[in-house]
Specification:
Strands 1, 2, 3, 4, 5, 6 and 7 form a 7-stranded mixed β-sheet that branches. The protein is of the alpha/beta class and 239 residues long. Helix 2 runs parallel beside helix 4 and helix 5 packs antiparallel against helix 6. The protein folds into 2 domains: 112 residues, Butyryl-Coa Dehydrogenase, subunit A, domain 1, CATH 1.10.540; 96 residues, Butyryl-CoA Dehydrogenase, subunit A, domain 2, CATH 2.40.110. The longest helix has 28 residues. Bound molecules: flavin-adenine dinucleotide. The site of flavin-adenine dinucleotide has 13 residues, from helix 5 and strand 1.
Length: 239
């Protein structure tokens, strides 16, 4: 009895926290609310069903409405129907999504970050107005085609996909690889080398404008549900 009395009572351990530097505290209260909403959605709506889609190598289209309702597409964009909130928030959202499922993370990152971000940063005012509000509302899904079968990290120096202007038409020719959302996207930001000045330029190719093919063995790429191949050999009107 006396031995039991002498055992020192230890304080309960704090809950596990992988945010070692407490960077989460940099966010303001409304940003934290958004991140918590995303975490709840990922844990309650995505985690319970996602393995089924991995096994079937299919994309969970049923989740798109829920992701839309989070109102998180274009947090680093001001205006154009986007929620705003800043790049820091966008990165926290990306982390929360990837924490549960890396394919949803690719889907969202490609749509909101790569495709919408490219149109926002590089597009004309007319192009922003034309596509960003619909993309923010997930009425249109975007993809981003930079990587090629023979060109990865060295894209800026050596893209093999070419763009040639003939009068009022651009002719894109080449092949892309690893393109998330490619088979179902409504529009694709395609990067190609303009043969006239050797500069890499971006072209928005809308559904029906490009030949899109699914990769033959997506499971081998570790992203079971993200189609990743797009072949382009199309004529586009200049805009
Ligand atoms: C999940 C996922 C989703 C993706 N989605 C898209 C998408 O939507 N659209 C798109 O366009 N692409 C996409 N990609 C492709 C991605 O951007 C490329 O994988 C990336 O550009 C690297 O290219 P690579 O795989 O050909 O590797 P490589 O460029 O061949 O690199 C292979 C290795 O060599 C190293 N290396 C390369 N160059 C150098 C150098 N000069 N000096 C030293 N080391 C070097 C790299 O660090 C790497 O370790 C996606 C990739 C992944 C994994």
């Amino acid at each position: 009895m006396s031995e039991t009395k002498n055992i020192k009572q230890t304080r309960p351990l704090p809950a596990p926290n992988s945010d070692f530097y407490q960077t989460f505290d940099v966010l303001n209260e409304s940003q934290k609310e958004v991140v918590k909403r995303v975490r709840t959605f990922m844990e309650t709506q995505v985690a319970p069903i996602i393995n089924r889609y991995w096994s079937a190598a299919e994309f969970p289209f049923e989740l798109i409405a829920g992701i839309r309702d989070l109102h998180i597409a274009g947090t680093s964009i001001q205006g154009y129907g986007c929620p705003g909130g800043g790049s820091l928030l966008a990165n926290y959202i990306a982390m929360e999504i990837a924490r549960v499922d890396c394919s949803i993370s690719t889907f969202f990152g490609v749509h909101s970050g790569l495709a919408m971000g490219s149109i926002y940063i590089c597009g004309s005012e007319e192009q922003r107005q034309r596509w960003l509000p619909d993309m923010a509302a997930f009425n249109k899904i975007g993809c981003f085609a930079l990587t090629e079968p023979l060109v990865g990290s060295g894209a800026a120096g050596g893209l093999l996909t070419t763009a040639r202007r003939e009068g009022d038409t651009w002719i894109l020719h080449g092949q892309k690889k690893w393109i998330g959302n490619a088979t179902f996207a409504d529009l694709c930001v395609v990067w190609a080398r303009d043969v006239s000045d050797n500069q890499v330029k971006a072209f928005v190719v809308e559904k029906g404008d490009a030949r899109l093919h699914r990769g033959e063995d997506r499971k081998q790429n570790g992203l079971a549900r993200c189609p990743e191949r797009a072949d382009h050999d199309r004529q586009l009107p200049c805009s």
